[in-house]
Amino acid sequence: MLPESVAREIIASHQQRPRNRGELVGAPFITLENPSCGDRVTVWVRLENDTIADLHSDGKGCAISQSSASLMTVALKGRTRTEARALAATFREMVMGEAASGRADPQLGDLRALSGVSRLHARRKCALLPWRALEGLLNAHGVGRPDGFPDVFSDGPASTDS
Q1: What CA–CA distance (Å, rounded) separates 19 from 69?
Q2: Are the C-beta atoms of 57 and 18 separated by less than 8 Å?
Q3: What are phi and psi of 34, to 5 degrees?
Q4: Using one digit for the tens of pLDDT, what is the confidence trace for 50-68?
C-alpha cells in the first residue's frame, strides 16, 4: 500500500492532468454512466493483433472515476489482452477488498493509489467504471474473455454507444 499522501498526489495528478484523454479517432468505443453519482466515462481501444496498441478515455465525474480511467490507460497500453485481463482482475480484487494478502499487489504500480477505495463501498463503482467500459468494449468487438477466465466485473454487462 502506498502512503496516503502519495496516493492522494497520484489521484490528483491523474484527475487534473489525465493521460491519454480524448477521442481516439476511428477506434471503437463505449460510454458508461454511474447513475448513482453521475460519473460518465467513454473508453476507446485500438488493438493490433493481440495487443492494446492505444487506449484513451474521456468523461466527467469524481476524482476517483476520472483518475482510475487515466491510470488504466497508462497501465494497459502495450499489454496483451491476457495481460490486461489479469491486471484488471488484480485491480478489481484490490478495489473490492478481496486481495488475498489484504495488500495491493506491487504489479499494480500507481493503480495502488486507489487501494483506499476498498474502504469506501459507494466509491468502488466509481473506480471500476472505466474498467467495466473496457471489458464491455473488448467483449463487444469480438475480443472476449478466453474460456475459463473468471468474470472480472460482476455488476452486469456494459452497454455500447458505438
Answers
A1: 9
A2: yes
A3: -110, 100
A4: 899 999 999 999 999 999 9
